[in-house]
């Protein structure tokens, strides 16, 4: 009886069946189509990696655009996903700050763009499955035909008195005041609230509620480049400057007693006899800031509405308090007895001095040498009105509640 052939038949049939089963299993798991294989970890991962992201990035303006407006045009958005990366920078690498929406689907610049500048934009969005989509464009902003700049006080690097505001006079009248003010940043160390106030449409001053604290460092950033200050007129200025507030000096002129009390850092350091405005040409009352200093200057009454009443070519130790011609200055032509006893000037505050401004012991010379641009001179008890806040650097005469309106 032969047994071996039967054993070979029994062994061979399961082997054929097993091979067929393995072939079927391999075919099901290796294909890209549907079926049970889609539920496997390897099969699902391979399919997800090969599919395109559902996130679509849209950027305005279009790639290669020229003469693009500096405000209101650049917008980046995503549908089918959220923005994860947005970079906007000019060709020098200066980045543009921006703000992402709460839902992560849109981005806009925080401020205007510069004029005549090429920008590169790179944006990436990610869909719910974590798949990314990116877009890159380049565009160039407009080159303005009409421009404006701001002429500012005080000068960079100077040390000033506690009353010195930041005062900017624009070369063109501004109608879009909000955009221009937003483009100017004024900060202080130690920090203090600083607010701007417009005088007309061509002057913007910044100050804190009260005088600066001695030792404060103030930094001003003028980011006017590309700001449309009025229709078709754009700023062309980007500049940073700073100044330091020196010791505190506030001098009070009492027109009724003919004395000026000089207070430094809270202590009276000197009382100086003065002469104020005569009854027919009184001195303004109020807080006035020294804006200019001249060791010798000419004063002509015709320039401030007094006709030919005076024309003095060598007024010594003159410091401007108003745009309308109010000064505190040396006086060598009045008798010495006048100071401390009479008011005889054309509206200025006069201190005894010598012709030629050579005597440093004269009261006017002493005050001139001890004063800084930005020091405050307060006039009281004069039979005149309070000086207007925009007549000189004298915004301190405006209540804070009105200043911040």
Would you give an account of this structure?
By secondary structure, the protein is mostly beta strands. It has helices at 4-30, 41-50, 177-182, 363-369, 400-403, and strands spanning 56-60, 75-79, 82-90, 98-100, 106-109, 118-126, 132-140, 146-148, 150-153, 159-160, 166-170, 184-189, 195-199, 203-207, 217-223, 228-230, 233-235, 238-245, 249-254, 259-264, 267-273, 286-289, 292-300, 311-320, 327-331, 349-352, 376-380. A hairpin with a 5-residue loop joins β6 (118-126) and β7 (132-140).
What does the main sheet amount to? Answer: 5 strands, mixed
Mean pLDDT: 89
Poorly predicted parts: 1-48
Cα radius of gyration in angstroms: 38 Å
Strand % is 35-45%
Number of helices: 5
- Helicity range of the residues? 10-25%
Distance from first to last alpha carbon: 119 Å
Q: Largest beta sheet: what is the strand line-up?
A: 21-20-19-27-22
Number of distinct beta strands: 27
**What is the approximate shape?**
elongated
Class of secondary structure makeup: mainly beta
